[in-house]
Amino acid sequence: MSAYHPLNETEAIEIARTMKNVFPAGAELNCREIGDGNLNLVFHISDSVSGSSIIMKQALPYAKVVGESWPLTLDRARIESEALIQEGKLAPGLVPNVYSYDPSLALTIMEDLSDHVIMRRGLIEGGRYPLFAGHISTFLAQSLFFTSDLGMNQQDKKIRLRDFINPELCKITEDLIFDHPYTDADTNSFDEAIRDEAEALWSDGALQLEVALLREKFLTHAQALLHGDLHTGSIFITPESTKVIDPEFAYFGPMGFDIGAIIANLLTSFASRIHWDADEPAREAFRAYLLSTIAEIWTQFEAKFRALWDQHGVDRLASAAPGYKDDYLRRLLQDTIGYTGCKMIRRIVGLAHVAEIDSIPDTAARERAQRLTLAIGKSLIKLNRNAQSIHQLIDTVKTTTASAKK
Amino acid sequence: MSAYHPLNETEAIEIARTMKNVFPAGAELNCREIGDGNLNLVFHISDSVSGSSIIMKQALPYAKVVGESWPLTLDRARIESEALIQEGKLAPGLVPNVYSYDPSLALTIMEDLSDHVIMRRGLIEGGRYPLFAGHISTFLAQSLFFTSDLGMNQQDKKIRLRDFINPELCKITEDLIFDHPYTDADTNSFDEAIRDEAEALWSDGALQLEVALLREKFLTHAQALLHGDLHTGSIFITPESTKVIDPEFAYFGPMGFDIGAIIANLLTSFASRIHWDADEPAREAFRAYLLSTIAEIWTQFEAKFRALWDQHGVDRLASAAPGYKDDYLRRLLQDTIGYTGCKMIRRIVGLAHVAEIDSIPDTAARERAQRLTLAIGKSLIKLNRNAQSIHQLIDTVKTTTASAKK
C-alpha cells in the first residue's frame, strides 16, 4: 500500500492514457472529478476525439459524513471490484464492466454510465422505469441464488465468504441501521418537529425485539453474497437499462437485506410524493406505479429464484425435503419485509437521510412524509415474522397511508 | 509445507528432547505411537527419570474410515491448535495445555492426559462423573458466549471467523450427518436387521424437512466458534477432571450443534444400556443418572450463559430489547434438541458408529438398542421447533423408551 496516494486529475489522465484498448493513440483526454468526496474520488475521463469515456474510482482512506471523519479501510476497493466482477458474471449487463483494479492505489477503472441517471434522482423527477422490476429481480435472483448454499459449491462458498469478510463496512450498517435509531445516539439526526416519533422508537419494546432479531441475522446469517447497500442511490438507470453500482458493503449475509433495501427506497419515494406531486390524482398514480413495481419485484424474484433452484440446485436434501422450498421462500419474504422497515426508519431518524424526503421544501409536507415513512416502517417490522405474502406488505402500506391521512 | 513428512518414533523423541522446560537434561525418553492411524499420528513420550510426559499429535494428509481413504488438509492441525488455545483461555483447565505448534509438520505438542480415560469408554464401563455436567456446561457457556456476537467484539469476531473457515472438515459433517442418513447413500452402514428403519428415514418427509432446516443452520448460521465434534470420544475424563480434546472440526456455526453433540452421545449410552446392565434396576439407575446429567448440562449451561450475558454482553440492542434473551435461549434449546436427534440417527445408519452400541455382542440386544436410538433421535428432531423446556427432551426420551419396550 506504500504507493497509495489520492490521485489528482493529471495523474488520472496519465493512467487512462495507458488503456490502449479504450483510448486510441491521439486521444484528447479530459478529466473531471465528480465524486462527492466523502468516501471516494470519482474521475470521469473522456476522449473528445473518439467520444470514449471511463470512470476511475479511487477509495479514500477515510469516510466523511455530515462533517465527521473516520478512518476506513482501502480494502473496500478490493471488495467492491471483486463484487462487481462476480455480479457481472452472474447478472450480465446489470452492473458496469470492470476494466481493471489496482490494489496499490485502491483504484477501479470501469465502464462510464453517464448516459444513465441515479435512480433516486430519476424517481424524484417522476421518472418511470417499466423494465426495472424485471432487471432488478434478475439481478437479485442470480446474484443471491448462485452465491448461496443452494446454488454454489458449498465448500467454495466458504472460501468465497473468507474473501468478503468486511468488518468496517458491516459495522456502519450494524450501528446506523440496527442500533442507533432505537436509542438516543449521538449520530442520530432528525427534525425537531418529529422528536415525539424518535422518542417513541427508543421505548417501543415490541419493535426493538423484532429489530434485534433482524440485527442478529445480519450479524450471523451467512446466506449469500449481498450487495449490502442496494438503495436507489446505488442504481444507475434509464427506461431501457439498469446498472447496479457501488457494492463496497458486500459480504455474506441474509438475502432479505438486499431485497428489502430496494423496496424500502421505493417506499421512501412513495412517502415523499406528498410534496412532489402537486395534485392528488398524479400522486396516487405514481404511488400505484411504485407499489406495483414492488409487487412485481418480489413476484418475479420468487419465480426466478424457484426456477434457478429447480434447474441448478446443488443441495440434495434442500431440494428433496417436502415443503422446504416453500418454507425457505416464506422466511425470505419475512426477512425482506423486516429489513424494508429497518431501512425506512433509519432514513428519517438516523445519520443518513434520503434526498426525496430531506429536500421537500414545505415544512409541513416534509413532516408528514417523515411521519408516514416511520409509520410504514414500524408496521412492516411488526408484520415481518407473520407475513405469508407480498400482498400483506402492499396492504400494510395502503392501510398505514390511509390512517395517516385522517 | 515442504518439510512435512509423517514422523517416526525416533524423530518424535528428537523433537521432544528440545523441550527443555518439560524434559530436563539426562531425560530417558520413551515413545509410543498410540493413535488409531485414521487421521493423525499420536506419540506419547515420557521420561522414565522424571516421570514427565507429553503428547505429540501430527495430522496425516488423508483420512481413513472403514478402509476408505481420502485426502484431507493439514491445515486442520492449525485449526485444532488455535481452537485449543482459544478454548484454554476461555475455559481454563477444561482442555489440554498446548506447548507448541509447528505448521511445517502439522504438529501440536500438548499436555499428556494419560491419567484420564476417554469418556465413551468410561461410560461403557459404568463410570459416573458427578462433576461432568458442571465442567462441560462451563466449557460450553464460556467458549460459545465469548466467541459470539453477544460476548465478543463484533468486528474481531468476523476476523476470527475468517481464521476458522474449515471447508473440508465441515463437508464431512454436512455429508455424514445432514445428508447421507436420509437417502440410500454408499457411505451408509447399518445392520441388515434394521433395513426397515433405514428405509423409513429415506421416505420420512416431515423428518427430512426438519433435518434440512438444521442442515441450513449448520451451513449458514455463524453464531459462535464451535468445537464441532463434541462427542464423548472427544472428552478425557476422571471423576475429578474433564478435558475436551480434538477440536479439528472447529468453525463458526450454530451453538446448539455442540450442546446437542454431548447430549446425543449421552443418549446413545442411554440406549446401549439394554446390554451393559444385566439387571433392570441397575440399568434404570444408570439411565436415570444419564438423564439427570443431561438436564443438569442444559440447566447449568443456560444459567451460566445468562449470567455471562448480564455481565459481559457487548450488544446494546440484544441486551435492551425486551424478550430477546428468552427468545434467544429458547431457539438455542430448540437447535440443541434438533442436533441431538441428528447426531443419534447418524450413529446407527451412517458411516461412523459408536462403540457402546456396535460392541453389544448379543444380536437381539444390539438391534433393540439401535431401534431405540433411532426412535429417540426421530422424536427429538420432530420435537425441536416446538420445544420450550429441556424437560420436554427428557420426557420424550422416557416416553419413547417406554413405547419401545411394548
UniProtKB/TrEMBL annotation, chains A, B:
Indicate which residues the UniProt annotation says bind ATP: N40, K57, E111, D112, L113, D246, P247, E248
Renumbered to this chain, the signal peptide range is none
Please give the catalytic activity noted in the UniProt record: 5-(methylsulfanyl)-D-ribose + ATP = 5-(methylsulfanyl)-alpha-D-ribose 1-phosphate + ADP + H(+)
The Aminoglycoside phosphotransferase domain covers 176-289
One GO term in the molecular function aspect is: S-methyl-5-thioribose kinase activity
UniProt cross-references to InterPro entries, sorted A to Z: Aminoglycoside_PTrfase, Kinase-like_dom_sf, Methylthioribose_kinase
Which positions does UniProt annotate for substrate binding?
A: D229, R346
Quote the EC number. 2.7.1.100
User: Which pathway does the UniProt entry assign to this protein?
Assistant: Amino-acid biosynthesis; L-methionine biosynthesis via salvage pathway; S-methyl-5-thio-alpha-D-ribose 1-phosphate from S-methyl-5'-thioadenosine (hydrolase route): step 2/2
Gene3D superfamilies for this protein: 3.90.1200.10, Phosphorylase Kinase, domain 1
Class in the EC hierarchy, top level: transferase
Ordered alphabetically, the record's keywords are: Amino-acid biosynthesis, ATP-binding, Kinase, Methionine biosynthesis, Nucleotide-binding, Transferase
Q: Which HAMAP family match?
A: Salvage_MtnK (MF_01683)
Q: Which PANTHER family match?
A: METHYLTHIORIBOSE KINASE
**What's the stated role of this polypeptide?**
Catalyzes the phosphorylation of methylthioribose into methylthioribose-1-phosphate.
Q: How does it assemble?
A: Homodimer.
**Which family does the UniProt entry place this protein in?**
Belongs to the methylthioribose kinase family.
Kindly provide the name given to this protein in its UniProt entry: Methylthioribose kinase
